[in-house]
Amino acid sequence: MLALFATVQSVLHTAKARLVREEKGATMVEYGIMVAFIAIVVLAVVILLGPEIAALFQRVRDAI
What we know:
elongated; 64 residues; mainly alpha
């Protein structure tokens, strides 16, 4: 989750710097699409691996 936050922050910082230099708004749209794609990938991974991770923590908790 921290990596996602860092990625989003980096993308937004870069997009802001480009807009300050008065580049075209199309770049902002491209960054928006990239951020949306990253969010979808992270969500899919969490949905797919969530039960396995929860089971792993449950086994560790039972072992303790």
